[in-house]
Fold:
Amino acid sequence: MTFMTANDNQEIKIAVIGAGNCFSALYQGFSFYKDSDQDNIPGVMFADIGGYRPSSIKVVAVYDIDARKVGLPTGKAIFSKPNCARVFAPNVPDGPIVQMGQPLDGFSDYMLNQPEDIGFRLSDAKPVDIVKSLKESGADILVNYLPVGSQKATEFYAQAAIDAGVAFLNCIPVFIASDPKWEQKFIDAKLPLIGDDMRSQLGASVLSQVLQELAFDRGMVVDFHQQINIGGNTDFNNMMVQSRLESKKKSKENVIRAQNDLRGIEVPKDSLFAGPSTFLPYLKDNKVAYFNIRLRGFGDNPVTIDAKLSVQDSENSAGVVIDAIRYLKVARELGIIGALRGPSAWTQKTPPEQMMYADAKEECEALANRRLTASVKRQPKAS
Structure:
């Protein structure tokens, strides 16, 4: 196995599926942080991962199916309707032209019939050959930002990544990295992947996790844990279609349930709830989460935590994606293949292996320093 350093190739080339709000925040972030050279960058968890900084990432291909985005330069498409993410870096480069992707189940009739500002408008352009496009772009990694519920479309793009020899970052709750059959396909192709369902920088899922871990560590019993989320972007609107919501709710509850499973604690099914609750257009990209956690302490004394979190949803995930991209690049250079355990547990709601907060962070810090921990050493290596 040949080990490389970041000096061999300073760029990380990414292709992106879905030019929506999350990608808008990410693309703006590349401009916002392009001159950041300090050891600790405010807003970014790790300034340097394996020799790569946020400025190392270059977008080389973008795919979408909305008529208001396909055919536009990326720098214009990210500000097109129905996107409503906050504009914090308006002077972004044009970037690549957005190409027509494969629609499949990446949209619903409900979203097509919504008002223009909050719905989708399907382009009549001919889909490009995704595998050919990925190869021609020279992409190292394909980032999946499809809408929740895009099962067939996500599987299509995961296979396209395999066929094109590209690593895969699955930011949505369609289970690829956490599905042993799909992981084996990436192992056979000698490729790494991270998934599934992006966990925001300081979002509802990570807050639920650390509050519950804190309760357990202080000897408390968790009787009930509720997390309700509301928002006004297209992600929340899309999830008003109940048939597209099942995997999202499961993924969010996985974060809470995993903390019990790791300790061998049985949890009644009706004692936890986490998931999107409703869509309020007024909120736009602002996501508001409400927590109610009911505990028992010494002598069975009742303790209740009520909390509220308000964040800009898309920006809150962008920094985590910047990290995940760099973990994948370093893994490729180290010859590590399959679903990355530590980085997936740190950056995703439903990783192939749930970990405690501190353990997942330790795994990521090791990979950032190009060290192979016991967990990483257990992963398959490219021959």
Observations:
- Residues 1-8 have pLDDT under 50 and may be disordered.
- The two ends are 6 Å apart (CA to CA).
